[in-house]
Specification:
This is Flavin-containing monooxygenase. The protein has 13 helices and 18 strands. The protein is α/β, with parallel strands linked by helices. Helix 12 runs antiparallel to helix 13. It is globular, with a radius of gyration of 24 Å.
């Protein structure tokens, strides 16, 4: 929260809305309550946890738990695992909400349809006077209408709440799935089987998920964490009799939990000396220059290690890029247990493809004559995160602030709006 919120401002009279009750939403609520406000949290689902509330059965942390915890609440001693599973993570999140009295602030089954600034034109929206250029935390005009739909009663008219400050904690990995575009008559509409997104599969409970894939020929499209986890689970359920096919275009470096432990153990002050920093002095520049070869050596050793423990060359699974480049992109994933063992026994088939399209019985891959016959296609192809965020704004000015940025790292701050709207988004994959 801004340090400019002086005690002379009537905090309790200023209304704050927080959209989303995931980890970021809970933290935002807790900190605003500590500052003396009485925020309301709108959550579209019937529980807290965000993406952790709907995952497949085998989902675990990819980050050691000591690097994925609240600063004011440690993991319980009963959690011995370095990488807790979904149920343990959810119990931990719920214990945080209970400890700090956050549940009473949450309106469940309340989906925020849109938020609209009450300014009449774009010039007024951009003015410093409106966005606290006066040095105060709140201006008298900077207000928002938050339109909320009751999920349990969708036919009822939405309610409109007027607030002084909005904190968006809606996340990047939910709600709006990204599905590849296909030419006419070559998409899912011609396929006789079932086509779903990984989001839909994760929403099923354990029994429903098993019944959905049991004794079916399943093809999973993608190679990020959700694709690997789903493919491993399907292959474990159906075995060699009905092998699962993992269809992907690009290979990524993936490793074991032990490799993640080693990597995080090296995230220390010494490793920081290998990186050039803005406005660094001569000594730091010289140290980074002399020590930078150690980064290359370390990552090359990891690549050799992964080629040694996994049959990457045998299955054409060696990525075209370096491990160092992938780490810089925060795209490293942990392989599910026994992943390559299932590839070896034939219950999981790896298939690399430049392009594919649908036919009545399955998928035609790279213009092959014989189609890949399948009953179910699961797209684990990510989410339209930018579109999801921009859609919540009613005014085009704010939509343009979100979409089309050429600088993704700084994509989410909204110009000149520090004191009336905040976007809190997780932008790196290792913490998933």
């Amino acid at each position: 929260m801004s340090s400019s919120m002086s005690s002379c401002e009537p905090k309790m009279e200023k209304k704050k809305a927080i959209v989303g009750a995931g980890i970021s939403g809970l933290l935002a609520c807790k900190h605003t309550m500590e500052k003396g406000f009485n925020p309301v949290v709108f959550e579209a689902r019937n529980g807290i946890g965000g993406v952790w509330s709907s995952t497949i059965d085998s989902t675990k942390l990819q980050t050691p738990k000591n690097y994925y915890q609240f600063s004011d609440l440690s993991w319980p001693l009963s959690v011995k695992e370095t990488f807790p599973d979904q149920s343990q993570v959810m119990d931990y999140i719920k214990s945080y909400a209970l400890r700090f009295g956050i549940f009473t602030q949450i309106e469940f089954n309340s989906k925020v349809v849109s938020i609209k600034n009450l300014s009449t034109n774009e010039d007024e929206v951009c003015s410093w006077e409106l966005w606290s250029g006066t040095g105060k935390a709140f201006s008298p005009k900077g207000k928002w209408n938050v339109v909320v739909q009751d999920v349990l009663h969708p036919l009822e008219a939405p309610k409109v709440y007027q607030v002084d400050f909005v904190i968006l904690c809606i996340g990047k990995f939910s709600d709006l799935p990204k599905i590849p575009h296909f030419e006419q008559r070559k998409g899912p509409e011609v396929f006789r089987g079932k086509v779903i997104h990984s989001m839909d599969y994760a929403a099923m409970n354990k029994i429903e998920a098993v019944e959905f894939i049991k004794d079916k020929r399943v093809t999973v499209v993608g190679f990020q964490k959700s694709a690997l986890d789903i493919a491993a689970q399907v292959s474990k359920t159906n075995g060699v009799r009905h092998p699962c096919t993992l269809l992907f275009r690009r290979v990524q470096w993936s490793g074991s939990e032990n490799l993640v432990r080693l990597t995080f153990r090296n995230l220390n002050r010494f490793s920081e000396l290998m990186i050039h920093k803005p406005q660094e002095g001569l000594v730091l520049w010289l140290l980074a220059f002399l020590l930078s070869p150690l980064r290359w050596i370390f990552t090359k050793l990891i690549e050799c290690y992964l080629r040694w423990i996994y049959p990457l060359k045998k299955y054409n699974m060696i990525p075209d890029h370096t491990f160092l480049k992938q780490i810089y992109s925060c795209m490293f994933t942990v392989l599910p247990d026994c992943f390559y063992e299932r590839v070896e026994d034939g219950s999981l088939i790896l298939k690399r493809s430049r392009k594919f399209c649908f036919c009545t019985t399955g998928l035609i891959i790279d213009d092959e004559v014989d189609p890949l016959e399948t009953d179910i296609v699961i797209f684990a192809t990510g989410y339209k995160s930018d579109e999801k965020i921009s859609n919540i704004f009613a005014l085009n000015y704010f939509k343009k602030c979100i979409t089309g940025s050429s600088t993704p790292f700084y994509r989410y701050p909204v110009k000149d709006m520090d004191h009336h709207i905040v976007l809190i988004l997780q932008t790196s994959f290792p913490l998933e």
